[in-house]
Amino acid sequence: MAKSALSTIGRTAKMATIGVIKTAGDIVEATVGSVRDVLLMTVDGVTQVTVALEEGTAKVIRGVIHAASDTGQDIGVITKSAVRGAIQAANEVGGDLGKTAVTATDAAVQAAAEIGADAGKALKNAVMGSIEAAGEISEDAAKTVTDSLVTSVKGAKDIIKSPFEK
User: Fold this and answer.
1) Theoretical Cys-Cys bridge with 122: which of 62, 69, 112, 137, CB 3.0 to 4.6 Å?
2) How big is the CA angle at 55 (ends 83 and 49), to the nearest 5 degrees?
3) pLDDT per position as a tens digit, 59-112
4) Residue of 155, 133, 161 whose CA lies nearest to 145
């Protein structure tokens, strides 16, 4: 049996997501919640929250997208939901929302490529999930996330029709 390319955290997120998918009625909210919970457990008690959050986010997002692929779920819906959960977790621990959005988006595109899914759709869903989650926090959070994505993620600017541009 081939060893998974996912990290331990990624495999944990994958297995948690598979369990959620099999039992949940609302896959979207269940995915948001499971990603949030796994990331909160990942950074619990860690002194370098920002570093742990970035590393954990990439691993969790990849694991969740692999789980969606393994269970035949809509990769776009799961990607958007997973990224929303990551932004929520970052907000709860005082993490950098912009960095989390960039990390989650990059991880989503990487995971989509790994499973043979459309990386462009993963990019779009990750960007939109980041902005929507940040917008639920505050207008400033949405602006921070939008600016970070535009300056750090290739192709994000083409997706974003920023409400902040006049």
Assistant:
1) 112
2) 95
3) 999 989 998 888 888 999 999 999 999 999 999 988 999 999 999 999 999 999
4) 133
